[in-house]
Amino acid sequence: MDLYKIKDNEPAWQSGMSKNITFIVTKDCQLACKYCYLVGKNVKERMSWETAKTFVDYVLEHEDEFREESVVWDFIGGEPFLEIELIDKICDYLKLRMFELNHHWFNSYRFSFSTNGINYHTSEVQSFIKKNREHISIGITIDGTEKKHDLNRVWKQPTADANGLTQPSERGSYKDVVKNIPLWLSQFPDAGTKVTISSADIPYIKESVLHLYSLGIHQVNINVVFEDVWQEGDDARFEEQLMELADAIIDGGWYQDYACSFFSEHIGKSLDPERDNQNWCGAGRMLSVDAAGNLYPCTRFAQYSLRSKKALIIGNIKDGINENLLRPFLTLDRITQSPQKCLDCEVASGCAWCQGENYDAAQTNTIYERSTAICLMHKARVRANNYYWNKLYRKLELEGRREEFEKNERDVKPEIC
Ligand code: SF4
Ligand code: SF4
Hints:
By secondary structure, the protein is α/β, with parallel strands linked by helices. The chain has helices at residues 49-60, 84-100, 123-132, 146-152, 174-178, 181-187, 205-214, 234-251, 323-330, 334-337, 340-343, 355-361, 375-398, 402-408, and strands spanning 18-24, 70-76, 109-115, 136-140, 154-156, 168-172, 192-197, 219-224, 259-260, 286-289, 294-296, 315-316, 320-321. One iron/sulfur cluster (SF4) binds at residues 281-283, 286, 298, 300, 354-356, 417.
């Protein structure tokens, strides 16, 4: 590994220049994670080949409506690899049709997966990876130590409830996932993992990040949930954990080769409304399709992602996108949806939001009401982040290496979702 190879969050492939198109191939998963925002996971809604094909035909035959330079074909669930046979067929068809149509995406596409990792080693998944090796990104979700992972990431009960909804069991999934990490890293050495933190996970943050580093995972993308789950005092506990983590990363020299997205030089500054008014979230510029053939601005607006609101559908595979329903998403920016306290906030940069959660948490059926449930957590993160960079730069100055460090640093801005 190069010294300073990873200094801040890695940008995603063709970030900002690609269209993200998501197939919700199944709403089933082997697990029933306790924090999962997918409240309506079920064993019934699996995408058919006819639905997938009709959708692909619609998108590729309307090239004028999809002018982005590149495309990320994203497959999610539930657990996408439960439907590896269908995915393989869809990807073969996509390649064939992009070629036949001389589509501008033929030379600039990726297949992307976020998986729980349980089926990763199977011959079906492995032969799919071999076939598409140059065009794949795969992230396996592992939450940290066995204790932390198994706190939330549990197997589902063998049978669904009367409505077909899956229920959590007591059986953790850490061992079933960790056994596939070496194979995954041998195939995707620069891959990162996603970790989600809610209230009960706070005491385990430091040991979990260090554990993931020790498994050989160089990029740990970690974030707190957007939902309003926080208890009194969580922000102080969070700050303390992050400062301990900062000490461990800097004193242990991990910062040279490993990254944790909690620490970024680009967060915690005030934002100029004239210049920094972009929407954090990509809803509307993305497109998702589910098993029923309905289209969404992001998967977060499908019914299985929503606790208290109705699905927000913007079209279907037969009639295409209804521009009138899509338009509100394209007008969203920071100012139009933020309360005054956020516009005046001195640490606003990096304080994220999720349009789907905003919609779900809002008093009315609006997407223009930003949820600020993470407010105290973001402020705690900013304080710990300042501690991290002050400590790191002090150390580098003492060692006479600050200049070398800054020269090698890439200017990576926080990404929008
Ligand atoms: S939610 Fe809180 S921390 Fe985030 S921008 Fe608004 S006021 Fe600032
Ligand atoms: S922030 Fe939420 S709504 Fe926006 S693109 Fe991401 S998941 Fe979708």
